[in-house]
Amino acid sequence: MLAKPAASNVARVAPPAPLRLDALELRLVRLPLLEPFVVSFGRMESRLLFLLRLEAGGRYGWGECVAWETPLYSYETVGTARHVIRDYLAPAILGTEITDLADLASRLGAFRGHPMAKAGIELAFVDLAARLRGESIARVIGGARQQVEVGVSLGIQPTVHALDERVRRFLELGYRRIKLKIKPGADVSVVEQIRSRHPQILLSVDANAAYTLADAGHLRQLDAFDLLMIEQPLAHDDLVDHAKLQQTLTTAICLDESITSHDRARQALETGACRIVNMKIGRVGGYSEALRIHDLCLERGVPLWCGGMLESGIGRAHNVALASLPGFTLPGDISGSRRYFERDVIVPPVEVAPDGTVAVPASTGLGFEVDVPFLESRTESVERLRP
Ligand code: OSB
Ligand code: MG
Prior knowledge:
17 strands, binds magnesium ion, seven-stranded parallel beta sheet, binds 2-succinylbenzoate, four-stranded antiparallel beta sheet, alpha/beta, 33% helix
């Protein structure tokens, strides 16, 4: 047996010396999705990416704010995140010396809420710190593996035939877990048909908060299909009803939207609201909180996996690094770049190997080159914030 790794220490994630932050560039870039992504709350045809570049002493770090244009997944939007970063977060960090991730997080933590905005900055800071150290992000945060296992999240399709065509395509590419988006009217019978065609695969479903406790009887029918988990069946901000629902289900509930912080994760586990945790670094406010939630799940032996927000390669590279931590024990929603975009903003693109894994880069920072000329060609707006 491997020795239990030491708990991550947020203050250990640091540049070689205190860092004076000189500028922060905010860039909006639109990429079309190869196919529309449909979930219980809506549909997306193109992704407006919000990319951040933090500058110190002529060196750069890249981050991504995963907010959507519309407040459907959470209350944040690209617009609210830009406002909060431009008017509050950037002024609190630019022109001052930051010693480490804990220092950065405590300055950002002076402001309530807006986790995706804060995470965008933390990501850029950790990439910059890693580059200055000449180490990979994975190494800086305490990553333990060289490959991460990945799955795919499939949007709601017009027919079961169309869905099954995609299930087969991604299984053939090696993906280790298939997640089906569900909603009332597109759930039990869809899952039954997919399961009957693929009796052995690791299969899960994600409702994105589309049900209420009154649907408990209906949701119990999903217990028949040997699912790995049911992700976020009830309201985005609920724990209490999830705990009641979990008691009536044999299938594990996994919470996504409801896990907004370390304390919420602890409360979810202590009340039995879930048995599995989905980590999204943007949803929890960045690496500082993500590392604490990771340590909590590792300590308590709770299965943890890395979720996705249809990120560009920049956010995806951060997810790959995060998922290399020892507590990530289930395949993540970290698909290859080609699952989303014809061309990604990093080179090389993220590739899924035939064994359903993505390699964790060992080179410095993100471990991918940001394709700045391509970014420029797709940029809708860019602004440079200074102290
Ligand atoms: O609920 O996990 C989710 C995408 C956008 C918003 C919410 C979710 C998702 C996904 C796709 O499931 C994950 C990905 O492939 O990036
Ligand atoms: Mg989800």
